[in-house]
Specification:
The protein is α+β, with helices and mostly antiparallel strands. It has helices at about 10-25, 30-45, and strands at about 5, 55, 60-65, 65-75, 80-85. Helix content is about 35%, strand content about 30%. The longest helix is centred in the first third of the chain and has 18 residues, at about 10-25.
């Protein structure tokens, strides 16, 4: 089993996404459902961290709806570092 470590920038990104979704939809339910879906997906990483594709350098990518989550797996330490979440059309390379 791997230990999943979520970086501060990820939470900041998720907060910004949630605010945007809420401002766009005025729906707490839609906003909460997306956040929950994202967080539930991260729980899978402790068992199957290599199941998602390598996207850029040593970053793996999870796609959920219109968003991409970037993370790195450290096999030696059995740790997963979740770094950022971006809108899919965003140029992620300048941020990671």
């Amino acid at each position: 089993m791997y230990k999943v470590k979520i970086e501060y920038d990820f939470f900041d990104d998720l907060n910004n996404i949630s605010e945007y979704i809420f401002r766009s939809t005025f729906s707490k339910t839609i906003t909460k459902n997306l956040s929950n879906e994202i967080l539930k997906t991260l729980l899978v990483l402790n068992l199957f961290p290599l199941m998602y594709e390598l996207k850029y350098k040593n970053f793996r990518c999870i796609t959920i709806k219109s968003y991409s989550i970037f993370y790195i797996v450290n096999e030696n330490k059995k740790e997963v570092y979740v770094y950022r979440i971006f809108w899919q059309s965003q140029d992620f390379k300048e941020y990671i």
